[in-house]
Design goal:
By secondary structure, the chain is an alpha/beta fold. The protein is built from 15 helices and 16 strands. The strands form three sheets. Strands 9, 10, 11, 12, 13, 14, 15 and 16 form an eight-stranded mixed β-sheet that branches.
Length: 390
């Protein structure tokens, strides 16, 4: 395997899971970060090379020049795999340029950004007959009246550009319960020059959140896929998955594959859906255009998406594969799940018994691996330092 795999962002367990998924097959993995601090993913025994690059936001031109210079030194073009939305945005912005140096699945500039942007992906979904939550744009006439009549309270104020919003507010969205709270939320977003939309909350507990994880080849055809059902999130109700079970839901394949193929998508994508507790209808919530936190679960149940990507881009694609049964295997990020459980119980959304019962499943851990313990040790030291610092 002469083509290296360059993984952008290893200071989080997503990057760690990519390194492991490729390293187990003997792929030379290169962990790229802007700092050696807290990049516990690079401590994996499957990490072949660690390099530091200029900060992708503070010095994007320097970062881009660094990537090109590194690729030029290689005997074969490396496969480029981002582990964070900000890296996806940078790759998308410079796609034509980077494809001269790296193997990247996407060929249509701007498509990554379109599916990541809450505004444009909802318009794409509507054009292709996929349901999305009722939405009001803040530049529409009679905004407050439309929210009262169409959206109703409580509702959510959601960013168009999630990475920028999360970086500023440390939250994925604002939940508002009345007109005053709505106006305050809109004012906060406007002050930071962040575009937002107002959206109806689809009824249903967090276990009504589902994912369709898929890989589309260079013909924009789904070749590999898995569906999952979330159980718990952190922050609760509107956060990231901390406990999610693989669950076979063929309807999600019907919805997701048709949509992604229709827009000409290539590479890995995860569509998040929410099932309306009252009607049973699935609504598209968002799309992740890079490896997600469920990656180790997907690997454990039989689909190694980073390796699927690597093999196709290096000219030796794997046979199509789908998980079409329930494996009773769950992704678990124990640290944040403990924080989530505390809030679920406090708000009466879950009981202690329900939580304990859920834990009796085969686990795909976010960080821990008996065969590769160093990242977990590094993570524990990092968290211990933060606790002592406080």
């Amino acid at each position: 395997m002469d083509n290296k795999a360059v993984i952008l962002g290893c200071n989080y367990y997503i990057g760690l899971s990519i390194i492991r998924c490729l390293g187990v097959h003997g792929v030379h993995t290169v962990a790229v970060d802007y700092s050696s601090k807290n990049n516990y993913g690079a401590h994996s025994k499957y990490c072949s090379e660690r390099i530091l690059a200029p900060h992708y936001q503070e010095d994007p031109e320097g970062f881009l020049a660094f990537l090109k210079a590194y690729a030029e030194k290689q005997s074969e073009p490396p496969v480029l795999i981002p582990g964070h939305d900000n890296y996806v945005e940078l790759i998308d912005e410079h796609l034509e340029e980077l494809k001269g140096y790296y193997l990247i699945p996407q060929t249509k500039p701007g498509l990554y950004s379109q599916v990541m942007n809450k505004e444009t992906v909802h318009r794409l979904a509507e054009e292709h007959g996929v349901a999305v939550p009722e939405t009001v744009r803040i530049n529409e006439d009679d905004l407050l009246e439309k929210v009262d009549r169409i959206i109703k309270y409580p509702c959510i104020v959601k960013p168009v550009d999630s990475p920028a919003f999360v970086a500023k507010f440390r939250s994925k969205l604002f939940k508002v319960h009345n007109q005053q709270e709505l106006q305050e939320a809109l004012a906060k977003a406007e002050k930071e020059n962040l575009e937002v939309i107002v959206q109806r909350i689809i009824p249903g507990f967090d276990d009504h959140m589902y994912t369709f994880d898929a890989y589309l080849n260079q013909d924009s055809k789904v070749t590999h896929w898995v569906t999952c059902q979330k159980q718990r999130q952190y922050p609760i109700n509107f956060g990231a998955s901390v406990y999610t079970e693989q669950k076979y839901v063929p309807e999600l394949y019907d919805l997701g594959s048709k949509f992604l193929e229709a827009i000409g998508y290539k590479g890995f994508a995860e569509i998040e859906f929410k099932k309306d507790a009252e009607t049973g209808k699935f609504y598209l919530i968002e799309i992740n255009a890079r490896t997600t936190n469920l990656n180790n679960l997907l690997y454990k149940v039989g689909v190694n998406f980073p390796y699927v990507t690597y093999r196709e881009l290096t000219g030796n694609p794997l046979e199509p594969m789908a998980v079409t049964k329930d494996t009773k295997t769950a992704f678990w990020y124990g640290y944040e799940d403990m924080l989530a459980v505390k809030d679920y119980i406090k708000t009466g959304q879950l009981s202690v018994r329900e939580v304990l019962k859920s834990l009796w499943k085969h686990k795909a851990y976010a960080i821990w691996d008996w065969k590769d313990p160093k990242p977990a040790v590094s993570f524990a030291k990092m968290m211990g330092g933060k606790i002592l610092g406080k």
